[in-house]
Amino acid sequence: MPAPTIDHTLDEVLNLAASHFKVPREKLTPDDDFFKTLGIDSLQALDLLTRLERHFRIELPDYELQGVSDFRTLANRIQARL
Amino acid sequence: MLDLRQYASLGAALKDALERWPNETCLIEADRDREKLRLTYSDFKTMARPLCRALEDADFKAGDRAAIIMTNQSKWLISAYSIFFCGGVLVPLDYKLTAAEHLQLLAHSKARFLVVEYYLWRAITQSPEFAKLTTEIVLVTEAPAGADLRGAYRWEEFKRKGEPLFVARQREDTACIVYSSGTGGRPKGCVLTHDSYLEQCASLTAWYPFWPGVRYLSILPTNHAIDFMVGFIGPFICGACVVHLRTLRPEFVRDAFVRYRITYVSLVPMVLKNLERGLRAKFDELKPRKRWVLDRLIGMNKMLTRGRSRVELSRRLLPQVHKAFGGELRALIVGGAFTDPSTLQFFYDLGIPVACGYGLTEACTAVTLNDLKPFRADTVGKPLPGTEVRVLNPDSDGIGEVVVRSRAVMSHYLEDPEQTAQTIVEGWLLTGDLGRFDVNGHGHLQLFGRKKNMIVTAGGKNIYPEDIEAVFDGLPVKEFSVFAANYLWPPKTLGHEMLVLVVRLEENQQFDGRLCDDRLRDEIVARNRRLADFKRVGGYLLWEKDFPRTAALKIKRGELAAEIGSVATRAGVVGV
Questions:
Q1: From A2's CA, which of A32, B84, B260, B280 has a CA 20 to 30 Å away?
Q2: Most B CBs within 10 Å, among A31, A40, A42, to test the B interface
Q3: Beta-carbon contacts below 8 Å between A and B
Q4: What is the pTM of this model?
Q5: What are the residue boundaries of the structural domains of chain B, listed by start?
Q6: Interface touch A62/B459, C-beta < 8 Å
Q7: Are B237 and B26 in contact, with CB atoms under 8 Å apart?
Q8: Would the CB atoms of A62 and B532 count as touching at under 8 Å?
Q9: Which of B196, B238, B191, B177 shows the shortest CA–CA distance to B9?
């Protein structure tokens, strides 16, 4: 099966973040600072990462999230491991 | 535990610890739910020996500085032990800093050696400043096969055969240089002696002893003063076991409590809050009848533990809660930043004692700690044995600057006599924190804010405004400065801290009331994003007067802050 496109991955990331933190999907945009938009701390961001890993069936070390604060970069990191 | 009075250095004490408990487990390393390594004290010695020999062969001498930039793992402790064994000075750096910041601190500390994890080394080598690196020997851990290490050695291969020679140090010699602030402004490298650590370790373990069989979960970064002491030196000199997790994912942290039947853990408030959130969510999912029973049991436990903590009894009353923490947890140790008293109370009411403390890198690890006799959620505890604490120039409420004197206090800031002279006055460390001793006369310290222009995040990080100003250099405005909001408007409470960018526009720059033009706002937002998430400013304030400056054109920060504080209000800050 071909790997999904980055746009598709990004869309999935936004959907999962919205559902995980129970916020309307339309409130989230790719370049949002997710710490600010979702009002979360770094541990809650790690929780989201776990959910994303399960969804995409990959494993991302914690350091992949270091310095990442927007959905687009996060999706790129995931895409690189698909 | 070892009698620390007999030892002149950390190296000597740790060396004896490895001999004293050869068959006890000293380290467990797990990644998620996979255990990767388990070492006895004897195994630890076997792993450290070839590294010590290789350091000797590399001409590592007494007093040489060696930095470590790594996440928590066994190689951190093995490297630190080997550095002390060879008489070196350890420079533990925060792995969450950027590569440019790592390079600045390596240069400032004049570290000859560096032990670094591969992914962090890769970032350092890609930095434009990499060419300026003066560190002579770099050991990289866990590098993939075939990776270009840019002249560094593989940690795993840096070993020699034979018996290394232990290098003795004296109590007054430097053991560590620990940076208590970032890099953009003036790095504050706290120079701590072997005496500081040995004294601090003796007083902490007098209140919270470890022993063989104790399992300490190490999740705060080991470079942080708390974990270095409580997650390395303390357990080792008592024959206890340190459990390292290679991830901070809350679900795996929760699993680790159960899998390894953790006895103690140190946390920053952010992690404690996360655990509280998880438990509250679980409680809310209970059916009404079960919830009713739980609430009654919590009420009963609260009543029975009012005077003192009774962990065994609490375990029987609330077995499910305690099982979730492995069933053998004796205390959560929390410090590093302001902790909401309601969070502390929440855990105590469940029968999980939370020892809240107060400390600063300049004072080694801790100044005060709650001894749970009785538990207090509204204080940071009592001064540790051997530590004198006073409140300087108290106001009518008894609140003044907290000052500390003890052998654990640092000797000085590295290469900064001016800052040292401002911070240590006649043997007293001026903490810059505002506090008072509780009115009931129980000797508990309460904190009320800060005199310093800085914030401490819930993750326990000190952020100095000067350190982050560089990111706004070139902002198209006349001038700007960053302040801690609580420094501008002292609230007499702790918590809810944020940084504020104060902006003075050019004469012809237009703005509409509080809202600046969008381009400027976008620029501020974009630049703010270049900072690590915990370092970002929370908002900006437009200021309509020129900043006061010295003859050398430096901003008079204190004067400007006082003026802003008296004229503007917090409500004038526009969030970004």
A1: A32
A2: A42
A3: 44
A4: 0.88
A5: 4-265, 268-455, 464-575
A6: no
A7: no
A8: no
A9: B196
3-state secondary structure of B505: coil
> Thinking of the domain A6-79, which architecture would CATH place it in?
Orthogonal Bundle (1.10)
**How many helical (H) and strand (E) elements, i.e. helices and strands, does chain B have?**
19, 30
Could B249 and A47 be called an inter-chain contact, meaning their C-beta atoms sit closer than 8 Å?
Answer: yes
CATH number for the domain whose boundaries are B268-455? 3.40.50.12780
Q: Does the beta-carbon distance from A33 to B248 stay under 8 Å?
A: no
d(CA B435, CA B449): 7
CATH entry 3.40.50.980 includes domain B4-265: yes
| pLDDT tens by residue, B124-159 | 999 999 999 999 999 999 999 999 999 999 999 999
Class of CATH domain B464-575 = alpha beta
Q: For residue A37, what is the nearest residue in chain B, using CA coordinates?
A: B576
Scanning the structure block, which residue is given the tokens 């901003």? Answer: B555
Same-fold call for B268-455 versus B464-575: no
From A11's Cα to the closest Cα of chain B, the distance in A is 22
The beta-carbon contacts of B139-144 under 8 Å, at least 24 apart in sequence, are B139/B79, B139/B113, B139/B114, B139/B115, B140/B116, B141/B70, B141/B73, B141/B75, B141/B115, B141/B116, B141/B117, B142/B117, B142/B118, B143/B118, B144/B118
Report yes or no for ipTM above 0.85.
no
pLDDT tens digit sequence for B49-108: 999 999 999 999 999 999 999 999 999 999 999 999 999 999 999 998 889 889 999 999
**CA nearest to A53 within chain B:** B249
